[in-house]
Design goal:
The two termini are about 35 Å apart. It is globular, with a radius of gyration of 20 Å. The protein has 2 domains: about 90 residues, no CATH class; about 160 residues, no CATH class. The protein is an all-alpha fold. Helix 5 packs parallel to helix 7 and helix 8 crosses helix 9. It has 10 helices and no strands.
Length: about 250
C-alpha cells in the first residue's frame, strides 16, 4: 500500500511539474492560464493531450515538437522530475500535522514557479506571493498553536533582510534588493520558522556570491542576480531536511 501511495505522489509531482512549466511560461507573458490549450512556443500549434504526458512525451518525440520539429527545452522534463522528487521527499519527511503536507505541496509549487520566473526575468509575480500568503493564513487558522513560531519566522526574515536592504541602499545609493525579495523572504519566514529563515538567507547569499564569482572569473558582466530563485530553492530544501531541529538539538534547546 505504501508503494502505491508513493507512486501516486510521484505521478502528482510529474503532473504539477508540467503545470509549473505552463505557469512559468505564461505568467511573465500575461497569457491566460486556465481553459487554454498547450501550444508549441515555436510554431504555436496546439499540443493534444496524448502528446503532453510528462517526461514520456519528451522521450518518445526525441526532444522535438511533433509538428515543426523544433527542439524542446530540457527545462520541461527537468522541472517535472524535480517537482516529483520534491513532492516525494516532502510527503515522506513532513510531519502529518493538519494541513502541513498540503501546505508543503502548495508552497513548493509556487516557489518552484517563482524560482523559474525570477531566474529568467529577475521579477517575482505578486500574484504568486498572494497565493502563498493565502495558504499560510488558512494553515495558521487551523493550527493556532503555531502562531508564535510562524510570526517569529516572518519577523526574523523581514527584520534581518530589511535592515541589510536599508544599510546597503544607503551605502551604494541604490536598491540592492527588490521589494519582491523582501515580500518573498517574509512569507518564507512565515513558513519555515525563525532558525531556518536565517539559514536560508545565509545560504542564498552564499549562493549568490559563488555564482557572481564564477561569472566574474568568466568575464561575464553581472548586473543582477535572481535572489528570489536562491531563496525559493533553499527554503524548500530546509523544510524537507528540518535543519532547524538539528540546530536546536545541538544547542540543547
Amino acid at each position: 500500500m505504501d508503494n502505491f501511495i508513493n507512486l501516486i505522489i510521484i505521478a502528482i509531482g510529474l503532473i504539477i511539474g508540467s503545470f509549473i512549466n505552463v505557469l512559468s511560461y505564461r505568467i511573465p507573458k500575461k497569457l491566460p492560464i486556465m481553459f487554454s490549450r498547450s501550444i508549441c512556443p515555436k510554431c504555436e500549434s496546439l499540443i493534444p493531450l496524448y502528446r503532453n504526458i510528462p517526461i514520456i512525451t519528451y522521450i518518445l518525440q526525441k526532444r522535438r515538437c511533433h509538428h515543426c520539429n523544433a527542439s524542446i527545452s530540457i527545462q520541461y522534463p527537468l522541472i517535472e522530475l524535480t517537482t516529483s522528487v520534491i513532492f516525494f521527499l516532502g510527503m515522506t519527511n513532513i510531519p502529518q500535522v493538519i494541513g502541513e503536507q498540503i501546505l508543503f505541496l502548495w508552497i513548493s509549487t509556487l516557489l518552484i514557479t517563482i524560482s523559474i520566473i525570477d531566474l529568467r526575468t529577475f521579477t517575482i509575480p505578486l500574484s504568486l506571493l498572494f497565493y502563498i500568503l493565502i495558504g499560510e493564513i488558512v494553515f495558521l487558522l487551523l493550527n493556532l498553536y503555531k502562531t508564535e513560531y510562524m510570526l517569529s519566522g516572518l519577523m526574523f526574515g523581514l527584520g534581518y533582510l530589511g535592515m541589510t536592504f536599508l544599510i546597503t541602499s544607503i551605502i551604494y545609493k541604490k536598491e540592492t534588493l527588490g521589494y519582491g525579495d523582501l515580500l518573498l523572504i517574509s512569507l518564507i519566514g512565515l513558513w519555515i520558522g525563525p532558525i531556518n529563515i536565517l539559514i536560508c538567507i545565509f545560504l542564498s547569499s552564499l549562493t549568490g556570491i559563488i555564482i557572481w564569482g564564477i561569472k566574474r572569473l568568466n568575464k561575464v558582466e553581472v548586473t543582477k542576480l535572481p535572489f528570489g530563485t536562491y531563496l525559493s530553492v533553499n527554503a524548500i530544501l530546509l523544510k524537507i531536511i528540518h535543519l532547524d531541529s538539528y540546530v536546536l538539538s545541538y544547542l540543547n534547546l
